[in-house]
Amino acid sequence: MKYIPIDLSKPPADAELSIYFMRSYDFSGDAIAALCDGSWSHTGLMVQDLAGKCIVYEAILADNAIDKRDAIPRFQSFLADDPRNRLCILPLPRALLGYADAEIDLVVHYAEACVGDVTYATGALLGLAFAQRLGINLPDSPSKQVCSEFVARVLGGGDHEAAAPIVCDLRDDRHNAYCLVTPDSVFRRACAVMSGVGDFTNPAITRRTPF
Questions:
Q1: What CATH number did the domain enclosing 91 receive?
Q2: Would 49 be classed as within a structural domain?
Q3: For the chain, how many structural domains are there in total?
Q4: What is the pLDDT of residues 118-150, one digit of tens each?
Q5: Which of 77, 149, 165, 183 shows its CA 20 to 30 Å from the CA of 189?
């Protein structure tokens, strides 16, 4: 799958981008957090349009797909499921990252292309566990993605590992391929960029993380 051609002569919809992180305390949440050696069990992309409506795009294990849905009902339902569930929304400010409407258009078009076309890479969860603990990298495919890989691809170079990032490169010096990023590595990398520790276009310029 490649980017959908975009007609930039048309005024793109104004929008703001955020990454959100979830920790659920059901079986799948506990399993993913354990496999990825992390605190978070899920991550996704949120897009807010000019009218203030928020849409989320996320790779969902239970649905075996990339889903698109309204953000507020999704978050409310998640928090109501279990009082222990946690949610963190991390905005990606334009002023800091330097992206414009054209980049948002690319992000949204890639996300839309994934909906109904990309399945959840259940086997990649085991691959992440191997990579985390043994340094063994398993083959990956853009047509099958876990939640963190989807977020890294949609904000990064899409299907092209070597492409310049659209908004932000969420890989780091250890998780240096899209298929290797985890919810926690995305969280640390994004926080590093927001705090000025890392260069948002160069994952090599990031303080080494322990996981």
A1: 3.90.1720
A2: yes
A3: 1
A4: 887 666 666 666 666 656 566 566 778 889 999
A5: 77
Q: Is residue 208 part of a domain?
A: no
Q: Which residue has the tokens 């002023």?
A: 95
27-80 pLDDT per residue, tens: 888 888 887 777 899 999 999 877 778 899 999 887 778 899 998 899 889 989
176 located within any domain: yes
Query: Which domain range does residue 122 map to?
Result: 15-194
Per residue, the 3-state secondary structure of the chain, as one string, reads CCCCCCCCCCCCCCEEEEEEEEECCCHHHHHHHHHCCCCCCEEEEEEEECCCCEEEEEEECCCCEEEEEEHHHHHHHHHHHCCCCEEEEEEECHHHHCCCHHHHHHHHHHHHHHCCCCEECHHHHHHHHHHHHHCCCCCCECCEECHHHHHHHHHCCCCCCCCCCCCCCCCCCCCCCHHHCCHHHHHHHHHHHHCCCCECCECCCCCCCCC
